[in-house]
Amino acid sequence: MQTVSDHITAVEVKAIGSSETSAWDDYVARHVSDALFFRADWDKPFQTYRLTVERLAAFRNGSIVGVLPMVHQRSLLFGKHMVSLPWFDTCGLLADDAEGRDALMAEAVNRATQRGVDEVQLRQREPAEISEYVRTDKVLMQLELPATGEELWDGFSPKVRNQIRKGQKAGMTVESGGRELLDDFFNVYSVNMRDLGSPAHSRRFFQAVLDAFPEEATVHIARLEGAAIGGGFTMSNGAAWEIPWASSLRTYNKLCVNHVMYWHMLEQACAAGATSFRFGRSTPDSGTYKFKKQWGAQPVNLYWYLLPAKPGLVPDMSPPKDSYGKAAQIWQKLPVWLTRTIGPQIIRKVA
Name one GO biological process term (predicted). Predict the structure, then answer.
């Protein structure tokens, strides 16, 4: 199957610089209502890892007709990839037509080949004629929201309502804010990620996100007797609310920390006029999938296309391991201060 046109003449593709990012943002804002992860403001958060967002734009007669943001990641363990974009569920290629799409794909593969990269990964929300190699093992869990929190509450199962009440009766409270809550969030998040056996983002990264998106980003902290025991990091994305990062301390699991915290965030989303809440991606029937589904969230298919950048290369279609076995067990035994130091060096190389 041929996925990239051999002869592209009417469209010119180039990487745009910082002086042209306003034209980039204008284009994506006109083409998608939820343009958050496409925005050029993400450059600074990525730069905290010394990663550059390369923004390819297709031009026809001087006007942008397609865009593709990419990040080059290199690792001896995980390989060499160009991803659009790491860490996010979807943020792939946008184009007015097939010619613009093919031109962007051709240029992406060309740049990947020149750099010795194995493949280009495009994370799309809709199926497209991009490549015969596509991973569909993850779904985005999305809940359509009613107009009010009261209506949402009435739609929950008795089990969910009881779990929320359990935490509330224990005295748990939740507050929302910004930079003033970052330390509490990061302390909970980094401990939980260590306990899960996974590397965590750096505090600098979250600070950069808050600085870049002061109107969109909100930090939520669940407290018990004043101590932070849970944290969520939401971002408004058009009419949707996203929650890219959330954690709670497992010591308090019996108090249903996540139920109290998520109910607070969902109620806030309704009050803000959001029409949907995106819980993030999950593997169908996994533990996180079931947690999200109990709120009424429904799976939305994700399409992660792989474009080989080396002749004869067949991309590995198997999903990455959710846990790396022995490595995760060792990580769980490390002191938190050490995982905070090493973790960002790992996560910058993981898509």
Answer: peptidoglycan biosynthetic process
The amino acid at residue 137 is D
| Rounded distance between C-alpha atoms, residue 268 and residue 271, angstroms | 5
What the chain holds in terms of domains, given with CATH numbers, is 12-135+302-320 (3.40.630.30), 140-301 (3.40.630.30)
> pTM for the full model?
0.92
Chain CA centroid to CA 281, Å: 8
* Cβ count within 10 A of residue 57: 23
Report pLDDT digits (tens) over 236-250: 999 999 999 999 999
The tokens describing 144, both together, are 């359509």
Residue 16 vs residues 50, 66, 131, 250: alpha-carbon distances, Å: 19, 12, 25, 45
- Burial class of residue 271, CB neighbours in 10 A (0-12, 13-18, 19+): exposed
Minimal CA–CA distance to 25: which of 8, 10, 42? 42
Cα–Cα distance between 145 and 148 in angstroms, integer? 8
Residue type present at position 51? L
DSSP assignment of 96-143 equals: SSHHHHHHHHHHHHHHHHHTT-SEEEEEESS--TT-S-EE---EEEEE
DSSP state of 180: G
Any idea what DSSP says for residue 16?
-
Q: Which two tokens stand for residue 298?
A: 């429904």
Mapping DSSP to helix (H, G, I), strand (E, B) and coil, where does residue 224 land?
strand
pLDDT digits (tens, 9 = 90+) for 264-279: 999 999 999 999 999 9
Burial of 278 (0-12, 13-18, 19+ CB in 10 A): buried
Q: State which amino acid sits at residue 234.
A: T
C-alpha 309/C-alpha 117 separation (Å) is 6
**Of the candidates 104, 137, 97, the residue with the CA atom closest to the CA atom of residue 122:** 104
